Fold this protein.
Amino acid sequence: MNRRTLILAAVFLMLAFVAWRLWPAGQGGTEAAPRTSALGPTTAPPPARVPVSTDVNLAVKAWPPEERIALADRLNAPDKDIQSDLRVLNDLFQAWATNFPQTGNPVGENAEITAALAGDNPLRLALIPRDHPAINARGEICDRWGTPFRFHQLSGRRMEIRSAGPDRKFATADDALFSP
């Protein structure tokens, strides 16, 4: 081998090594190591993958839009109760987790979470229609009495959901809570 061939082989091996180190986790092969610089890691290692339900009712990504929206249709249905509404919201968060396994639950205040569930997300996946009757003029998902739900992130995968109840005041005896 001549010197030029050796240099090209060394450059190729270095590029292959760098590509292997930077390859995104979950894209096949082994998990990528965290990127490092002279100052240490530049990003945190990817979060551990949390198993999510494989229940066909939650794997909404492959559903046609009209069936995805059917899940949200049960929210604030007249023949249901607040506990059913809380379970529907939890199902929406589980559907989110199924479709966005690396990101965790949507974050922010009610309006930001609602926007993400309504399609303001990387896949433009609407789990609830923007014009759903449970969404108020400020873009917040509301309980059956018109009070915006409160969402409290317990972890990347667990969301506590609270309704103020019929008296429309939080922290009273009639509040309804879903805590996974």
